[in-house]
Specification:
This is Cytochrome C oxidase, cbb3-type, subunit III. The protein has helices spanning 2-17, 31-43, 78-87, 101-111. By secondary structure, the protein is mainly alpha-helical. 15% of the residues are buried.
């Protein structure tokens, strides 16, 4: 009986570690994060959920910076995410010609709030 209880506690703890904290409320975004939210809605939201799980046309970006790796296996860092925005990957088109460096910086700031 104790063994079963211990296994249950361990499993619950391990499962709890896989949850992602909720995103920062939109009303609490800084000006740069809000600019990133706007740029995200214009350029990314048609394919990626930001505040919900599951796939739209691409993977959800909820908690993207709270995980060590992207879905591709690449590190979840500014350099890799910027490169993916600029050059695309798989079915994602390159957006480097339509998204300014300032907008990319703001999108990264917004993604970090998710």
């Amino acid at each position: 009986m104790k063994r079963l209880l211990l296994m249950s506690v361990v499993c619950s703890a391990l499962m709890g570690c896989k949850t992602v904290p909720p995103p920062k409320p939109l009303t609490q975004l800084t000006p740069q994060e809000h600019a990133g939210y706007v740029a995200y809605q214009q350029n990314c939201a048609q394919c990626h959920y930001d505040r919900d799980t599951g796939s739209l046309h691409g993977p959800s970006l909820l908690g993207v910076y709270k995980k060590p790796y992207l879905q591709s296996g690449a590190p979840a860092n500014d350099e890799r995410i910027t490169w993916t925005i600029q050059h695309g990957r798989g079915m994602m088109p390159p957006l480097g010609g339509q998204v300014s460096p300032d907008d990319i910086a703001s999108i990264l700031a917004y993604l970090k709030t998710l």
